[in-house]
Design brief:
alpha/beta; tt1808, chain A; seven-stranded mixed beta sheet; 39% helix; 25% strand
Length: 198
């Protein structure tokens, strides 16, 4: 078993989490995208959505958004894609992560992961929640082993045009009741910048 094999119910039960659904980020201010991101999305999003596959959405929507977050935070955070995060294979906390944002500027080695971003398979946000939760728990345990005291780890599941955010503190898992659409990219950026800079 690995991250991608977790369903939400599995993650909650096997990882012994308490679930709360609530509004997480309504008070976070929006952050207008740069001219570069606005143009990248204007060109890339329609193409990605018409191609209709995960690779296109990842490269033409998700990657530019996460690069913008890194740019806004003056490259004081690192961004990883397709990186292995093997924390505890005995319970399925192993495998390749779609995207990780770290509070460390080091790009060579993963340190201090704080946000796991999962590309929803078959445009199914709910279907990606279990994988995201498992990756968040792995990031939490990674940080604990490194003696890094971050109170919360965050996650996002996205199809590129829809975004859903999560928060994990101790064994308390919160899933945002709100889902953000691509036209609300300023809000999505605001959320990412706020949680990574926290």
């Amino acid at each position: 078993m690995s991250y991608k094999d977790f369903r939400l119910e599995d993650a909650i039960d096997r990882l012994q989490l308490r679930l709360v659904e609530r509004a997480l980020f309504r008070d976070i201010p929006a952050r207008e995208p740069s001219a570069w991101l606005a143009e990248a999305l204007r060109e890339g999003a329609p193409l990605a959505l018409s191609l209709g596959n995960e690779k296109a959405r990842s490269e033409l929507i998700i990657a530019p958004v996460l690069l913008e977050v890194r740019r806004v935070l003056l490259h004081k955070v690192s961004l990883f894609t397709g990186i292995e995060l093997d924390v505890d294979a005995s319970i399925g906390l192993n495998g390749v992560c779609d995207w990780l944002l770290s509070r460390s500027p080091e790009q060579i080695l993963l340190r201090a992961p704080v946000v796991a971003v999962v590309e929803a398979k078959q445009e199914n946000i709910r279907g990606g929640l279990g994988q995201c939760v498992a990756e968040m728990v792995a990031a939490q345990r990674f940080n604990e082993r490194a003696k890094l005291s971050f109170p919360r780890v965050y996650g996002a599941v996205t199809t590129g045009d829809n975004w859903r955010f999560l928060s994990l503190e101790g064994d308390g898992l919160s899933i945002d009741v709100d889902e953000y659409q691509l036209p609300e990219i300023a809000k999505v950026l605001g959320i990412f910048v706020a949680i990574v800079a926290e």
